[in-house]
Amino acid sequence: MSKSGISESAIAAFTASERARFIENNPTSIGLAKRAKANLFNGVPMHWMSDWSMPSPLFVQRAKGARFTDVDGHEYIDFCLGDTGTMFGHSPDPVARAIAEQANNGLTTMLPGEDAVVCGELLAERFGLPYWQVTATATDANRYVLRWARAITKRNVLLVFDGCYHGTVDDVMVRYRDGKTVPRAGLVGQAYDLTQYSRSIPFNDVDALETALAQGDVCALMCEPAMTNIGMVLPDPGFLQKCRELTLKYGSLLVIDETHTISTGLGGCTRQWDLKPDFFVVGKPIAGGIPCAVFGVTEQVALAMRDAQKTVSEESSGHGHSGMGTTLSANSLAMRCMRVSLEEVMTESAYQHMLPLASGLAQGLRYLFKHHQLNWSVTELGARCEFQFCATSPRTGAQAEAAFHDSLQMALHLYLINRGILITPFHNMTLCCPQTSHADVDRLIGELDSALTTLLALPG
Ligand code: PMP
User: Fold this and answer.
1) Which residue among 53, 131, 320, 430 is the one 20 to 30 A from 270 at the CA level?
2) What pTM was computed for the model?
3) What is the CA(290)–ligand 1 centre distance, in A?
4) Ligand 1: does its nearest atom lie under 6 Å from the Cβ of 167?
5) Where are the beta strands (DSSP E) in 263-399?
6) Per residue in 180-205, pLDDT tens?
């Protein structure tokens, strides 16, 4: 019997029957997957789209609110929501209208419009930092923040927590193993040694944090307020305050990446928990699902950025490249969508619907696992919740990783997909959006109940 309480042979039998069911029920998706192999590498437009639990990629026809329909006509309740990109529902009406309006008014011009000014005002009011920049993705935002942090502090080392993810930023691709920073496994084409300028330490470890910062070479600590990419790991009481206190003590900047933790409530953890970062980052849902991300800075950081900019500009006689910015960053369509998203979609009333639903889902999951005598934990963060195959919620990335049971996770996900429910792949995370209903939550719990009943009845 594995540590999750479910045997590998039961999982194998269960998975075989679910794979057969998927293949039988999805002839159109399977036909498209075959066709796609001719011209898309691995048959998908982005490689990780083939890493899900299905035996062949699922092709989507349409998505709206909390639901999408696949090309074979099955309807799904979506608890993945584009892994947060559509945390406020697919194609929210105000964003859909904004896209239609903007469609004939120019999509990208390399110049700002009034929407940019309004977005700056709304962002400052929402998140509490006075100055903002807009990028195409959260990956880009984090990459540029790191450049600024290095330029300002004239230090090179980035400090991150073991098991973090902040997008495909090279510098964060490190892990903590046996007291040392090592490159993350699985990187393709990594030419240089990432451990030279990146340091990784365990989450929730104040001593390790102080030791890492005390070396005096750390430009910034980049972190999520709660880890969400290796399963969910919540901060110990007072840990984030220690992050602020110690970064200040040792002259390092604090970067809070709220790309996922924006699920916590209006203004993210930064506002809800009064985190006082030097840099604040949020991407994915900020423009309702249109590619867009932002980073905000304090008054003091903005002053230091101006100084750094002046020095660099003098060195390059004004003709250099900053190493930041992509051509489509802050394009007219993204700015229009971000404006309406902040004004009409990402609102207090949206959170008021999402938070109690997610909390009810977490309660339902706890009850379900107890009922099946499974020692699995459930962690909540606002509209987001996660179940993990371990008895108590993990405190570090390594503990969260130790609770992974990939074959079981994929078996459960596939069972749910075969019954019209999608949860976030690669771990067991769910999000509730403003259109998710109590009945949807009950369906998820009911189907998971049936999955566990079936699995546990199989010979171990
Ligand atoms: N930061 C965090 C915390 C994330 O979870 C992610 C993506 N999962 C990113 C940044 C990067 O976002 P994107 O892939 O949209 O660049």
Assistant:
1) 430
2) 0.97
3) 14
4) yes
5) 279-282, 293-297, 377-381, 384-388
6) 999 999 999 999 999 999 999 999 99
